[in-house]
Every structure is written in structure tokens, then in C-alpha cells.
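Good morning,

Both structures are done.
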Amino acid sequence: MKRESLDVVGIGNAIVDVLAHADDAFLEAEGLKKGAMTLLDEPNAERLYARMGPAVEVSGGSAGNTAAGLASLGGRAAYVGKVRDDLLGEIFRHDMRAQGVRFDTPPATSGPATARSMILVTPDGQRTMSTYLGASVELGPDDIDPELIAGTKITYLEGYLFDPPLAQQAFREAALLAHQAGRKVALSLSDPFCVARHRGAFHELVGAGVDILFANEIEICSLYETRGFAEAAAAVKDEVEIAVLTRSAKGSLVLGRGEEHPVRAVPVERVVDTTGAGDLYASGFLYGLTRNLPLPLCGRIGSLCAAEVISHLGARPETALKDLVKSAELI
């Protein structure tokens, strides 16, 4: 694969997802806030893992999911993320490459183990994440390949990775390199707790280094500290070229180029697991955008991809998204 042929490079936390079903009582007993993401140290991660029910382990991480979804659509994707040279790290690397995603970031040879996220899925399909970031936080500016960034249409930054100072430096370096090469930069806010911890830094990055912003309703309201969605949407549309605001069953709102497009959610027979819904929406939207499709159509492709991933356990598509888009006659 030639460097200059890539559509999207995702930069984020390289995490192996450990998924299991749980009920609300288990969440309460463990002191976990339903639907949120909690950071754990290694001892607490091991303790929670021991208490979980039967689990499935799959490569995950928000930007990794988006890159995998883009590849499933037939797009050309790369991924930048840090793993350790351990078993989970090898699983992550194999899974990414097997799905057609370029992944060349060298593994760490010392330090924390590969990151993992314990994802508890309740009967209503909500996912509650408890994450040990491990080696993923070791990602820094030295892991950013200037040629890779310059040769890719869109560099996609994962907000979950914004906690470590080195990762923030990596984000800024990648954004600078992309813009110097005349490329676009996209950012996903990822989680309202990430936004609350780094609101000032996110504002700075959004205002100066982001062309395309992805956020859900809670995240965008948190960023602008508004009580209402409409107020937050009005604030963001003047800051970025394109804003993509998802609202779960209410669909999404795409703002950009002086346009405003509500997009309906694609109905599913049964919501099994909402893990990765926003990630796969981004896959579809970016796929359309890199092919210069109209913004409403980008949103519809995103909604279709999100519907596929919430219909089963796990954050990676089980059906070839390219075939779904074709059968839906979207393009």
C-alpha cells in the first residue's frame, strides 16, 4: 500500500476489549456509573476482570474501531497506537492487519502491558467501560510518521487519548503536519468525562487545529457548557468546517459549509451492544467524505454502519460494510 493512497489514519488508544454481559446490580456492586468510562490502575483492572462473567476478547479502541470500519467499507486506512510486545499486543496487531488496516507503530519493549477495556453490557444494550490504559499512554510525538500523515487525506484523533501529556503533543504534531501538507484533521471528543478534564485544551485544539469534529449530544454540551443541544450546535458550527453531532435514537445533525442536515437513525430490530456506535458512524461518514459525497449522504452511511455494530456484541463489524452500503443503494 502506497503512503499517498490512504484515506484516513486514526491515532488513538490501542486497546483490547474484554466484553461480558452484566446486570445493573453488578454495576452498582462495583461502583461503576452506567454508560460511562472509568480509568483503572492495573491491580483494579485485574480484580474486575476476575469478577466478570464469561468474556470475549477483541481488538478495540475508538480510533482503531473507526479504522477497521473504514477498511470494511473498502476504504484505505492506517492506525497509530502503542502496544507492548506481549500477547495482547500481538493480538491487537494481528487483528488490525487482518482487517486490512495498516499498523506499523513499533511496540514498546518495556513498561506497562498492553491496554485493555473491560466492557460490561447490560440487557438494554448500554455499555459501561472500565479501562486500564497501560502501554497506550506511552504514545508520543516520536511515533508520528510525517510521511504517513502527509500522505493521508484525513488524520483522525481520538479524544480518549488526550489524558497523557505526551499524547497531547502527538496530537498537535500530527495536526500541524496534516495542515502543512494541505490535509484535513478530524477529532472525536469520545467521552464527556474526557471533555470535562481537558475542556480548555480541547477548545484550543478545536479552534486552531480541527477541521471535522465528531461528538455526541452530551459531549458537545459539555464542551460548550450549555444546557441545551441547540445552543451547543450553534456554538460549534462557527468553529470547525464540519461538525457531526450524534444523538443515539434521535439520529444525528451534520453541520458544515453553511448547511444543516438532520439525519435519521437507521432502525435495528434489537439493540444488543452500543459499544462502537459512534466509532462506526465516524467510519461511514469519513468514508463518504473522502469520496467527496454530499454531507447528508455521508451521515446516512454513518448511520447504517452504526446500526450494524449495535446489533451484535463488540465494536467491530460482523458484516462487510461495503456490502451493506451497496444493498442499501446509498452509493
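Second structure follows.
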Amino acid sequence: MGIFDAITNKIKSIQQNSANKKEFHDLVLQAVADGQLTDAEIKTIGSKYQAFGLNKDDIKGLGVKAYEKAANIIMADGVVSDIEMDQLIRIQKLLMIQDNEISVIKSSISRIQRINRIQTGTLPSINPTGLILQKGEIAHWEEAANYLEEKVVKRGYVGGSQGVSFRLMKGVTYRVGASKGNLVSETAVVPTSTGKLVITDRRVVFSGDKKSFNIKLDSVLNLDMYSDGLNITDGKGVPRIFQFVNKLNTDIVGTVLSRAINNL
């Protein structure tokens, strides 16, 4: 075999290996598209892996991509069942994925599982820092938060005049006096106290550096959840607005509070 033939065969081998890897990648991603792997799919994947003579370097990154695709399909309905979790474990083992490679997506799965447990009535029990509970009271959640209130942030006058002078005759000037106009105020919802929000089976307690109070759960008239906080309206019609320091916990706080109210 001449050098030209050797080079040609080498190029063909590289091209074939590239085609094999693409086919294998497509096969795996298609197999996990429904969030699970059947025995038949596992057998096919194993056969192709051996037939193509692939190694771990050839499928580097594929496992994480496949796991995330399957996990996102499973999490789409907001529920991760034990059966679905078993499927993800199966995918992880088959594709030789290390835990540290999928830590972010696993964290999202854990959050959904926690929310699922709370929604079905399994509320967590905690020991809140610095809060004395009432007899028989159970604390379920503690979250760092800012208490917000509507405050005047700017005052000023509109429609005012600095005054104008008119020359009537030599030595005589008529002046129209200056006017400040109308006083206007600009308001905004701003943080007025920083502290922690504790949810128990009886009340919502806010302990802040400048303000502290509690709201009985049986007096809550309305609850509005936002992407970074919540608004509770009590029996007197007073809105209490909170902004969470950790926005990622908003869905959990909302679920805990809703479940605690429903459990009354």
C-alpha cells in the first residue's frame, strides 16, 4: 500500500468514525426523548456502542446532554415520580455520568420533589432561629426577606414661575411675583426592614431590624405570589409585601404557605 492509499484510508476511517459517533448520539437522544429507556433501547444502544468500537472519549458530553433532555421532559409537568426517578438513575448509570456533571439539574429535580411532598401534605418541620414558638406550634419554613412599604421618595413643585419684570416707563418697573406652583409627591414601594420570614402552622412571623409583626393564618384574606416575593393581605385589609433574598426559594415558600393555610 502506497502512502497515498494509506492517507486515503485514514481519512475514510476518520470520516466513518465521525459518522458512527453522530449516529450513536442521535440514537441515544432519540431513545431518551420520552424521559425513559426501555430494555430494548438499552440493548440497542449497547450493541451499537460495541459495533462502532466507541469509547468514553467518543461519547464525552453526550451523557449529560441526554440526562438533561430526559430530566426536562420529566419535570415539564411539575411532578417527578419514583418511577421517573428510577429512569433517570438508569440513564445516568448506562451513560456513565458522574454526579458532579449533573449537579445543577439534580438540584432542580430535588426542588420539584420537595414541592411535590409539600403539596401532598408533608410539610417540613424546623427550629427557627430566635423565634419563641407558642405551645404546640410547629414551624415549617424560614426565609430571609425584606419588608416593603409604599413611601414618599421625592417631593417637588410643578407649574411654578420665577417671576417676570415689565418696564412701564422710565424709572417704573412692574413685577409679577414668583410662584412655587403645586406641591407633588412621588411614591414607590421600597424596603423598610430586613429580617426573616417564618411560616408556622398558625401564623406568618416577620422579625426585622426595624419592624416585626405576625399574621395569623386564619386571618389571611388574600395571597399573591411574585417571582421574588409575596403579598399577604390580612383580615384588616392591610397588605404586607415581602421580597426574598433568595429568589430561587419563592416557589417553595409559596407552596409551604398555601399548604399551611389549607391545613387549618
